[in-house]
Amino acid sequence: MTTEVRVPTLGESVTEATVATWFKKPGDAVAQDEMLCELETDKVTVEVPAPAAGVLAEIVAAEGTTVGVDALLAMISEAGAAVAPAAAKPAAAAPAAAADTVDVMVPALGESVSEATVSTWFKKAGDTVAQDEMLCELETDKVSVEVPAPAAGVLAEILAPEGTTVAAGGKLAVISASGAVAAAAPAAAAAPAAAPAASGAKDIKDGPAAEKAMAEAGISRDAVTGTGRDGRATKVDVARAVAAAAAAPAAPAAAPRAPVSADDASREERVKMTRLRQTIARRLKDAQNNAAMLTTYNEVDMSAAMDLRSTYKDQFEKKHGVRLGFMSFFTKACVHALKEVPEVNAEIDGTDIVYKNYVHMGIAAGTPQGLVVPVIRDADQKSFAEIEKEIAEKGRRARDGKLSMAEMQGGSFTISNGGVYGSLMSSPILNPPQSGILGMHKIQDRAMVVNGQIVIRPMMYLALSYDHRIVDGKGAVTFLVRVKEALEDPRRLLMDL
């Protein structure tokens, strides 16, 4: 029995693609959903997974072939049907333990995330591993993903070393069953020695669409940084190189790095930015470039909120099993204010304003890997206890790098608490495409004039950064005043005042 491998849907208005790379050759065993080949269209690169497990019996469309949607790419035979052709090969060509190997694959990375970087291997080739033991950690633009061992055995080969960019569904390593330990360990040890020669001998060919784009633009291959598999250039890479070349004359020359002495250089350390840090840097700069960002400030007397928390915190924790913090107060106060000033909870989409009739509250959290923003969905419908539980649970998983992409998407407004680090005042940067972010700061005793008397009050500065394209100054100030009023008299939240 054979299974056909066909060209998948390529996207709206895209009718054909070019076969850029085959990752398997006829006679190779394939697992279901294992990547067989890569297609390149005018806009995107599409990976084609195996629709069934078996043996790649025939490749119908070779590399460089232009194929239409639903065209036949290859044929997969059942594993049993491939025995006869395989027998024609010398017996020594197939390792005795081949049937005992298990592939370690890149797991699903989340919606719209197609690749990750291998940041850390916890095991090395030749090590014994238990089922579900952590093998390595992958880093995407937003989260870290741990990859467990799918089976017990020996880590026979690492195919993607640290620093390698891998696609979703790609192969990371191979595990041999316990019986193949003796054979697998020497082979794994010998692999590093053979790698340089293999990589040097490999001729990496760019996709046809990229080559055509380079020819049309008159740009050399040396000017293009390939981000595809094995460093291949894609059409998008060529477009970036062309744009960079066009912008170069107009852009001021980058300031050269100041000369350093040999002694200073020996005490410096150069570390490549992680994908998460690069994404944070890019998104923050985009927020400054794309929005008319402005910040307004106010201050709040935290006495009432602190007294209320002090009075009920023990009963609250006993009943709900979670501590009563200030974040639930601020979340509720923001929800209250957003009802009156809905444009702060809206976003711009082209020439439209999209008003959200819900509040998905982003709570910024610092982690060892960088800043992440888990989202409390439908915060406007949750109680103090529900909000506190969700903040605690997601904050814990954020620090452990366990948050999924879905849990950090779709926020409509964000709260950032720099006060936990001692910040007295700062201007938070918008979290696009949101139009508002509230910055909390350190609670500090200050002398205040109340009813003509100088008294000491626990005060906090508040900062609202907003997109002035959609939020007017009056709306921003009104929002911040409503937050202040709700915190200084929490009873207003109960009365919806």
TrEMBL record:
Enzyme Commission designation: 2.3.1.61
GO cellular component: cytosol; oxoglutarate dehydrogenase complex
Pfam families: 2-oxoacid_dh (PF00198), Biotin_lipoyl (PF00364), E3_binding (PF02817)
Coiled coil: none
Cofactor: (R)-lipoate
UniProt xrefs under Gene3D superfamilies: 2.40.50.100, Chloramphenicol acetyltransferase-like domain, E3-binding domain
Keyword Acyltransferase applies: yes
Keyword Transmembrane helix: no
Reactions mediated catalytically: N(6)-[(R)-dihydrolipoyl]-L-lysyl-[protein] + succinyl-CoA = N(6)-[(R)-S(8)-succinyldihydrolipoyl]-L-lysyl-[protein] + CoA
GO function term, MF aspect, one: dihydrolipoyllysine-residue succinyltransferase activity
UniProt domain Peripheral subunit-binding (PSBD): residue ranges: 205-242
Pathway annotation from the record: Amino-acid degradation; L-lysine degradation via saccharopine pathway; glutaryl-CoA from L-lysine: step 6/6
SUPFAM superfamilies reported for this sequence: CoA-dependent acyltransferases (SSF52777), Peripheral subunit-binding domain of 2-oxo acid dehydrogenase complex (SSF47005), Single hybrid motif (SSF51230)
One GO process term, biological-process aspect: L-lysine catabolic process to acetyl-CoA via saccharopine
Record function comment: E2 component of the 2-oxoglutarate dehydrogenase (OGDH) complex which catalyzes the second step in the conversion of 2-oxoglutarate to succinyl-CoA and CO(2).
PANTHER family listed in its UniProt record: DIHYDROLIPOYLLYSINE-RESIDUE SUCCINYLTRANSFERASE COMPONENT OF 2-OXOGLUTARATE DEHYDROGENASE COMPLEX, MITOCHONDRIAL, DIHYDROLIPOYLLYSINE-RESIDUE SUCCINYLTRANSFERASE COMPONENT OF 2-OXOGLUTARATE DEHYDROGENASE COMPLEX, MITOCHONDRIAL-RELATED
UniProt similarity note: Belongs to the 2-oxoacid dehydrogenase family.
Protein's name according to its UniProt entry: Dihydrolipoyllysine-residue succinyltransferase component of 2-oxoglutarate dehydrogenase complex
Species of provenance: Thalassobius vesicularis
